[in-house]
Design a protein that fits this description.
Elements: H1 6-11, H2 20-25, H3 34-54, H4 58-73, H5 81-88, H6 91-99, E1 137-146, E2 156-160, E3 182-186, E4 192-198, E5 203-204, H7 210-217, E6 223-224, E7 227-233, E8 240-245, E9 268-271, H8 274-279, E10 286-290, E11 293-295
Parallel strand pairs: 1-10, 1-11
Antiparallel strand pairs: 1-4, 2-3, 2-7, 5-6, 7-8, 9-10
Bound molecules: benzoic acid (BEZ) and fe (iii) ion.
The site of benzoic acid has 9 residues, from helix 5.
Keywords: Dioxygenase, Oxidoreductase
Organism: Caballeronia novacaledonica
Protein name: Intradiol ring-cleavage dioxygenase
């Protein structure tokens, strides 16, 4: 016998546990933006699947809501706790990887991090960006080339790192000199650049908020492996946002934000030679790092889903 309520039997609009995600997604209008529709329906499907697997109590669900509320309340113009959450869950690096699938041989991308400052001072090659005279002296030199190894002159290299106490200048305004440990260099006619600084140290990401508490509760530490940040840009090439890491840092395999890629671990050579030190304006010993950046031409990226 035919039901008096055929729609109820085939696809009921009313909530039931088994079909919960389908019931919610069926409400989406045909007029909704197609990308929004795709994103929201995938999110609803995965969120409902997670809830079904976890089976949270009301108290647990409320604790999750409280965590998200506190995460939002921690955000200011200076502090983005949601990005930090995305960082420690590996989502920032995943989004970055999806959007920077470069040809083999090109320098890999990484996340930017919260301590980049646009318009840092522009320096001539060889300038020392360490203005507080703390730490072990280091020279970084190398070339910017294309994938075929041709030099890229006039590439802009923005570099920033913490000082030897493990803080960026912007975290210690009035304590560190302005623009300490950051600067902008330009590659020469052979694509060469060089600058002086100090060997980077590992340091903790900001951990005084809900994300830090979550890390602690999961038995994870907040430390980032010792690194320098770079943005390298040149007209006609895909800009590279990246890091280079010291090879001897104990936190390499457990960087708090999953920023380490094997190809970005550099060699740091300790040079104990008074003449070599004199040539670069240091006293012996000092650290020497040779690092080349390889840029892919613009538009040479691909996304799997488009
Ligand atoms: C950083 O490397 O500066 C950083 C990256 C992600 C979160 C916090 C700090
Ligand atoms: Fe950093």
């Amino acid at each position: 016998m035919q039901s008096a309520f055929p729609a109820v039997q085939s696809a009921s609009p009313y909530f039931d546990e088994a079909r919960s995600a389908d019931v919610v997604n069926a409400r989406m209008s045909d007029d909704a933006d197609p990308r929004l529709k795709q994103v929201m329906s995938v999110l609803v499907r995965h969120l409902h699947a997670a809830i079904k697997e976890i089976e949270p109590t009301h108290e647990e669900w409320f604790a999750a809501i409280r965590f998200l509320t506190e995460t939002g309340q921690m955000c200011t113009d200076w502090r983005q706790e949601y990005i930090l959450l995305s960082d420690i869950l590996g989502v920032s690096m995943l989004v970055d990887a999806i959007n920077h699938r470069r040809p083999s041989g090109a320098t890999p991308n990484t996340i930017l991090g919260p301590f980049y400052v646009a318009d840092a001072p522009e320096y001539s090659n060889g300038t020392n960006i360490c203005l507080d005279e703390k730490g072990e002296p280091m020279v970084v030199e190398g070339r910017v080339t294309d994938i075929e190894g041709n030099p890229i002159p006039n590439a802009k290299l923005e570099v920033w790192q913490t000082n030897d106490d493990g803080f960026y200048d912007v975290q210690q305004k009035g304590v560190q000199p302005d623009s300490n440990m950051r600067g902008v260099f330009t590659s020469d006619a052979d694509g060469r650049y060089w600058f002086r600084s100090v060997k980077p140290r590992h340091y903790p990401i900001p951990s005084d908020g809900p994300v830090g508490k979550l890390l602690g509760a999961m038995g994870r530490h907040p430390n980032r492996a010792a690194h320098l940040h770079f943005i390298v840009t040149a007209p006609g090439f895909d800009p590279v946002i990246t890091h280079i890491f010291t090879p001897d840092c104990p936190y390499l395999p457990e960087d708090a934000v999953f920023g380490v890629k094997r190809e970005l671990i550099a060699e740091f050579n300790k040079i104990d030679d008074a003449d070599a030190a004199k040539r670069v304006g240091f006293s012996s010993p000092f650290w020497s790092v040779s690092w080349d950046f390889t840029l892919a031409t613009s538009g040479n990226l691909h996304r799997q889903n488009t």
